[in-house]
Amino acid sequence: MTAQIHGTVARGFEKVRDAFIDNFTGTHDCLEVGATFSAYRHGEPVVHLWGGHADGAQTRPWTQHTVVNMFSSTKGVAACCVAILSGRGLVDFNAPVAKYWPEFAAAGKGGITVAQALSHQGGLSGLRAPTTIADVCNWNTMVERIAAAEPLWEPGTAAGYHAITWGFLAGEIVRRITGKSVGTFLREEVAGLIGADVFIGLKKNAANPIAEMLKAKGEQTQTFSEPTEILKLTLGNPLIEAEVANDPVWQEAEVPAANGQGNAEGLARLYAAFATDGSFEGRRLLTKSAIAAATREVFFGVDINMGKELGWAASGFFVRNAWGWFGPNAEAFGHSGWGGSLGFADPRAGLSVGYVPNQMDMNLQGDPRSLRLNAALYACL
């Protein structure tokens, strides 16, 4: 079935449209079913493309406002929220988490700073208490368990990717400060103000139809680190399968590390302020100094769960871009997600970029589809 491609590209950016079409029709290992790719430069749209189908049976066309689960690209969305609160003077990355969330100080965690917690250095990447998907979808259950938990390693001595728990750390900080859940804060004070189709917790609706997530065909082509006890607790308690993204209970819950629903235009609009001076379409979201604080690298080294040398910022963004996932410039920062999605800002180029597919790819680190799109985009500059 031939995919219909829609949208616009600015003059001089035709190569991106060609690459987008090639991801649907080429000879690659993983072809798109439905996808969207968008980019803004200096706050102005240069690419906005969508196409294909929102379901595996290819009966529902992907529309301009279709969204789909972004898995860990949601972490970048939540990090944007924390950064905006920092810009308002409400979050101090050097302060203990317990300043905002007193119960968190239990079990020797009183000294863990916000920066350590959000840069995956807090030792809370997994829980020892048996945990189910239903538990993950219950906010109070998760934050109570995290507050009571002992760290799995001495905080501040290593970074270990917090695949699911990271979102509850970030989200509870947001909730304690604002009185709003992170999904509500995102909707009312960030994405909703700039017309960005990005959500954490979303019921099925006509305005933003949710696409079906399609699991990767075949085995993953990369792994995380060696299967230590910590990694088993991180990824296996509970084990999350790709199909969970299609469960309405999962979609409607707030899991700020993994269940955001969005599209590329939404991500590109959200990151647009971070790629410039903190403002977008005449609305200031944060200051340049707040961007600098949120993107300050607080860890660089081998992440014990990822098994890869990475840079983490105080707010939880991937920084340093050592692997080129966010284009060629080291200053770019953002977050990618299982299955291929990503969102990032590149201040050097003045670019903000989003990419969201529903056909998951087998590459855990560096999806070839987004790499081809980013290469085409930067070739147009």
Structural class: alpha+beta
In whole angstroms, how far apart are the ends? 33 Å
The topology string of helices and strands comes to EHEEEHHHHHHHEHHEHEEHEEEEEEH
- The number of helical segments is 13
The strand order across the widest sheet is 1-3-2-14-13-12
Provide the CATH architecture.
Answer: 3-Layer(aba) Sandwich
Rg (CA only): 19 Å
Description of the molecule:
- With 381 residues, the protein is an alpha+beta fold.
- The protein has a single domain (68-356), classed as Beta-lactamase (3-Layer(aba) Sandwich), CATH 3.40.710.10.
- Helices cover 30% and strands 17% of the residues.
- The protein has 13 helices and 14 strands.
- It has helices at 14-25, 73-87, 114-118, 133-136, 139-148, 165-178, 182-189, 191-194, 229-236, 248-252, 264-272, 288-294, 368-379, and strands at 5-9, 34-41, 44-52, 68-69, 198-200, 260-262, 279-280, 283-284, 297-303, 308-313, 318-319, 333-336, 342-346, 351-357.
- The strands form four sheets. The protein has a six-stranded antiparallel β-sheet, sandwiched between helices. It has a three-stranded antiparallel β-sheet with strand order 4-6-5.
- The longest helix has 15 residues, at 73-87.
- The model has no long low-confidence stretch (mean pLDDT 96).
